[in-house]
Amino acid sequence: MLQLKRFTAADGEQAYAFLQAFAPDENGFMNPYRGCPKDQFLTQELPQILAHAEGKMLKENHVPETWFFLWDDDQMVGLFRIRHYLTEALAQGAGHVGYGIHPAYRGQGYATRGLALAVKEATKLIREEEVYLSCHKDNPASLRVQLKNQARIDHEDDVEFYTRIPLPERNG
Taking residues 144-152, what's their average pLDDT? Predict the structure, then answer.
């Protein structure tokens, strides 16, 4: 069963292994944890990631960000990071959501289904009426994922497309 679950300390070991499969920068998906010693990840980095979701221990000019892993039964197949609001730089760049699918699971529809689930989670976390995303122009698969999730291309530059996905009406 496919589900998007908020990252918890209990997922630390699997998350560490998952992150080792990604380059430090893969099509704009930033991964500073590649090559990080496992003990350091579990004792120092993981608590910071969890604190960031609560708006704690943030670096200057950073915003709260919650990590969600996409699970297919007991397999961690994707990571979706949702930023709770946008700074000027995020509004002109990376946007609300960054995501990556484990290399072993790419091309199987996980990104499309995972992004749909992430947009639902975003309605609970973000202030804006649209989810802002970006993707490198040399990553057409990511653009297709966004378009399949009702994104529209808002603008582009030499390197990236910038898309927007309207959020459903919010109650109360």
Answer: 97
CA distance 168 to 2: 22
- Dihedral pair phi/psi, residue 80, rounded to 5°: -125, 120
pLDDT of residue 54: 96
User: What is the rounded CA–CA span in Å between residue 91 and residue 88?
Assistant: 5
Give this prediction's pTM. Answer: 0.94
DSSP state of 41: I
Residue of 54, 63, 49, 73 lying closest to 1 (CA atoms)? 73
If DSSP codes are grouped into helix, strand and coil, which group holds residue 106? coil
* Strand ranges of the sheet holding 160-166, from the earlier edge strand across to the other edge: 130-136, 160-166, 152-156
Sequence-ordered strand ranges (E) for the chain: 2-6, 25-26, 29-30, 65-72, 75-83, 97-101, 130-136, 152-156, 160-166
From the list 63, 77, 62, 66, the residue with the least C-alpha distance to 15 is 77
End-to-end CA distance of the chain: 31
99: closest CA among 117, 81, 83?
Answer: 81
The partner residues of 67 in beta bridges, in order of sequence, read 81
- Cα 15 from Cα 12, distance rounded (Å): 5
